[in-house]
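Batch job 17 of 40 flagged for manual review because the log was empty.
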Amino acid sequence: MKANKILWIGGVVVGSLALFGHKKFKAAETVLNNLQLKIKDIRNINLSFERIKLTVDAILVNPTDVDFGFTTSSKIYLKQIRVYNKQGQKIATGHTQFYEINLPAQSEATLPSIDIEAPLLESLMQLLQKDATKDLKIEADIQAFGRIFTIKQ
């Protein structure tokens, strides 16, 4: 009888934890599917014969009413940023080392000093087009809960 009671209590505890975890995952998934990425600043532009390198500060925005980060015991890892032209061709890539980004509801986090690199010829051709910077699209890969989510601007 005592063993059955312990098993029953253990089952209730495990079930409650699973339900709590599922709810937190669904809330986090809502945030991750609605995150926005914006460019704040571009600096340190370096040209070589083959490549253009620059440093970008970005802002990651949580437009939802769900806290994400320290209140959900979750961690966001920003892995990579890609820049595309209006035809959808990738023209630049940046790898990042941002870990454990916290994003409370209706807030933003600044991601400073992201190094981006692109082939020089493609970059110059893109920048010489009329209103070229308006047509650029940015994507970022964010890892959370062991999954990769892609944020598109």
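Reviewer: the log was empty due to a logging misconfiguration, but the result itself is present. Strands lie at 36-47, 51-62, 77-84, 90-98, 107-119, 137-144, 147-152. Unflagging and moving on to job 18.
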